[in-house]
Amino acid sequence: MPDKDIHKINFIERMLFLFVSPADLMKNIKLNPVVLLPLLICVLLSIAQLPLTTRYSEIQTRSMSIASLERYGVDYFNFFSASDDDMDALEGDIALITQISTIGGALVAYPLSAFFAALGLFLLTKAARGKELQFKQYYSMYIHLFIISTIGSALTCFLCVSLDNPLDFTSLAAVFMPMGDISMPVFNILSSVTVFNIWITVLAIIGIRHINSFSYTKSIIIGLTSFIVSVGFSALSLSLTFSMLDIINNISFI
User: Fewer CB within 10 A of the end CB, N or C, for the chain?
Assistant: First the structure.
């Protein structure tokens, strides 16, 4: 269907196309880059999974304390060294911080993350000599794709809470390093490659092709480059806490 014949789609069609006809959605985003509606869906989904996120944060904190004890002989997260009263206070603090960060993150993180993801893809496209305007289309595309990311986050939290395990069972870490932890750089790299991230990358490649009228080969190269960069950034973010603790621990023994 020629681009000029593409009509604006309603909310139900937009959500349906995201899962069953992404090419049609990307063609529509090219002409009608909607942002507010999919952003609202992301925010509402994040708030709805707040109880799961709170419990998952407690499990993750416990896991980081175990890793800290094994790595340094000290619980830098004070999970196991706390008394029962302190433990209750700690869990309350974790819950409060998680609630604030989840709600605040839902309102701020999605727009910012979409901005930087769209900017990165925009620059890659320009380097590949893309001549059509794409930033607002890419921004709309990533806001839509974050709906999948939010659903994936809810599923991950549900599995972790159900199994009382911080391991992301949708990631390569569950296959190759199930006994690893966040203090291990390789584990963090594998944890950053998930079923949902791969799914989003495939849809992004479809978007790159239809928004820019690129060939499949060029779209795949740009999409995979963006994926590798995002995995590297995610792994670096996960490793940052223990990298800082390594420095602090080394200084304390000087």
Answer: C
Convert the pLDDT of each residue in 175-225 to its tens digit: 999 999 998 999 999 999 999 999 999 999 999 999 988 999 999 999 999
Question: Which residues touch 10 (CB under 8 Å, ≥6 apart)?
Answer: none
Query: What is the 3 state secondary structure string of 196-207?
Result: HHHHHHHHHHHH
CB 141 within 8 A of CB 207: yes
Please choose, from the candidates 172, 37, 36, 54, the residue with its C-alpha nearest in 3D space to the C-alpha of residue 103: 54
d(CA 43, CA 160): 21
Closest CA to 190 of 209, 176, 211: 176
Residue 248 belongs to what H/E stretch?
helix 216-252
Residue 171, beta-bridge partner list: 194
Distance CA 83, CA 86 (A): 5
Provide the token pair at 127: 């380097």
Report the Cα 161 to chain-centroid distance in Å: 18
Sole residue written with tokens 């999919």:
38
Question: Hey, what's the torsion of the CAs at 173, 162, 146, 14, to 10 degrees?
Answer: 130
Q: What does the alpha-carbon distance between residue 165 and residue 29 come to, in Å, rounded to a whole number?
A: 39
Taking the C-alpha atoms of residue 138 and residue 144, their distance in angstroms, rounded to an integer, is: 10
Domain boundaries, the chain: 8-43+108-252
**Listed residue (71, 53, 54) closest to 185, CA to CA:** 71
How remote is the C-alpha of 75 from its chain's centroid? 28
